[in-house]
Specification:
DNA-binding, 13 helices, mainly alpha, single chain, about 0% strand
DNA sequence: AAAAGATACAACCGCTCCCTG
DNA sequence: CCAGGGAGCGGTTGTATCTTT
């Protein structure tokens, strides 16, 4: 029971996370920052393996995550990036800072793949493996697979270099690792190609409000599943958020404010109320520039044209 | 109204890469 | 240089929810 659980089969909980576990995890990370996942289960008493904790945080509880309601711009970016990079979801996700690789992967598998397929068959002629065969790759020959892999690797390296240079040029470097949570840099990035818009001055307050919001978003489900604990969870989040905010001199977000934000984020169908991805055109332009340097103007011009029409 | 089928997505598993001693 | 272990990635699965019959 009271032994250090680490990915052994016995005593390590699996399956869906409970609200109580979420709160424990979030409050621990608020104090210590993300990373060093090995220590999380031991220090928090969570009967989860470190891997599970990391996954829960990066894919679900991490602040600033936008869920569902993919915009057309995002659709296009994902489609183009997938064509360009293949199923390298982490790389793709680095261009969509609000989305997780898992989310993008799921969205691709459930929506976009289908959408693309139907579009292709609507056009009559099925052009064979136009996206380097990277998409499903099941039927591509061995030779092309190898070539594809090398090409992708090289391309990604170059993209990273370009982005790094760009980041430095903007003196936007990420020294975030050591100083959680006092810095103004956005802390919880899990993908290497970091290219983010400059964080706002109040980014931390917002960040933690988002974190609470992520949890608050779960409340309806919690209510449904365990009416007894949900009130407790709600209160705990409130307390937690308040405590952290006052500890660090930030604005305290009330529940109503949080739910307001939540409903705002969730209701993207409202015309004119759509949440724009910050610097999306900027991000995409960088992508275009990088790819153009690699001599893939055709594909990327297409990308540009489509995005131009969208902006 | 209920059962069956389809879909969406959170979470897990296994593998690879990379860091440290 | 090498071995061990942690972190991260992509594929896959299990299950809750939605849709159809």
């Amino acid at each position: 029971m009271g032994r250090p659980p680490c990915c052994d089969k016995i005593g390590v909980k699996k399956g869906p996370w409970t609200p109580e576990e979420d709160i424990i995890l979030v409050s621990y990370i608020q104090q210590n920052g993300p990373g060093n996942w090995r220590s999380v289960p031991t220090n928090t008493g969570l009967m989860r393996c470190s891997k599970s904790c990391r996954l829960r945080w990066t894919n679900y509880l991490r602040p600033g995550i936008k869920r569902g309601n993919f915009t057309d711009q995002e659709d296009n970016m994902i489609i183009h990036l997938q064509a360009l990079l293949g199923n390298r979801w982490a790389a793709i996700a680095s261009y969509l800072p609000q989305r997780t690789d898992n989310d993008i992967k799921n969205y691709w598998n459930t929506h976009l793949k289908k959408k693309l397929h139907t579009n292709n068959s609507d056009q009559g002629n099925h052009h064979h493996h136009h996206h380097h065969g990277a998409s499903t790759s099941s039927s591509s020959s061995e030779a092309t697979t190898i070539a594809k892999g090398q090409w992708e690797r090289k391309l990604q390296t170059d993209i990273n270099k370009a982005k790094q240079a760009l980041t430095e040029a903007l003196s936007l470097d990420n020294k975030s690792t050591t100083s959680w949570p006092q810095t103004t840099t956005i802390p919880p990035i899990n993908h290497q190609p970091v290219m983010l818009p400059p964080p706002a001055d109040n980014s931390i307050a917002t960040t933690y409000a988002f974190s609470a919001e992520n949890i608050a978003r779960l409340l309806p489900n919690w209510l449904k599943n365990s009416p007894k604990s949900s009130q407790t969870s709600s209160d705990s989040i409130e307390t937690l958020n308040h405590q952290f905010a006052s500890d660090h001199g930030f604005k305290h977000y009330t529940n109503s404010e949080i739910s307001e934000t939540t409903s705002f984020l969730q209701d993207e169908s409202k015309p004119g109320m759509e949440v724009q991805i910050p610097s999306l055109s900027f991000l995409e332009k960088c992508l275009v520039d990088d790819a153009a340097a690699q001599g893939h103007e055709g594909l990327m011009n297409m990308c540009l044209e489509e995005s131009d029409s969208l902006f």
